[in-house]
Structure formats: C-alpha cells, structure tokens
Amino acid sequence: MPDTEWEHYMTKRPLPTYAEKLKEIETKVSEWKRHKHYHRHGLKKCEVAEELGISASDLSNYVNTVEGMNFSAWLNSLRVEEAQKLMKSHPELSIFDIGYKVGHPHPNTFKKAFITITGQTPDEWRTANVASEGNE
To answer: Is residue 4 part of a domain?
Structure first.
C-alpha cells in the first residue's frame, strides 16, 4: 500500500517504458522533420528539445541511439540530404543559395558538412549526380 500521495500517484500511473518513450520522441521528431524546422539557422539542441516538449538529454539519447550520431552530425545530415534534393529539383540554384535554404548561412560550413557526409564537395556531388540523371 502506498504511503504518500506521490507513491499513490506513481502506482496509479506508471512511468512509460523505454520503448514507449522512444516511440513518443520518434513521433515528435518525425513531425519536426516533416515541417523542415532544421532549415533554421543556428539551431541548438536545447531549443529543438523545447520545441519538441522533451528534455535535451532525451533528445540527445534519441539521436545517439536511433540515428547513431550526435546532435550536430544529425542536424548536418538532415540538411545535406535536403540540399541533395534541392540540387536535383532546382539545378538553377547556386550552392550558396542551397546551403542557405537548408540552414547553413556560411558557405564554408556547408561545404565542410557536405564533404563530411558525402565525401564530395557540393559542386562535385552535383556534377556527378544531377548531370548523370539527365543522361539516363
């Protein structure tokens, strides 16, 4: 029998399991990604966590566990993936414009993130992937 109100509350409403918590976070993150909130410049983990209604440590644990990378690398991977889509759908856009649109206002930062993720500069990737699709 619970001795305190808190113990009584906890026995009536048990904490979610780890899997339930991950699923809830995954749903929130998916919605956040769907709306492309990662395009905003200067995002910080604590801001994203607040938007999602979770703690920064829960967001960090989710990204580390589910995505297999740290927050910064995850954010960059979302942005680079979006940049690749933009290069294909809007080949007329400059690399600077694409980087800016996906959340990298500084060309060198965008280029470095792109190289880290793809192994190529944005220009090299566009030449190899966008031009070749038109020839198929």
So the answer is: no
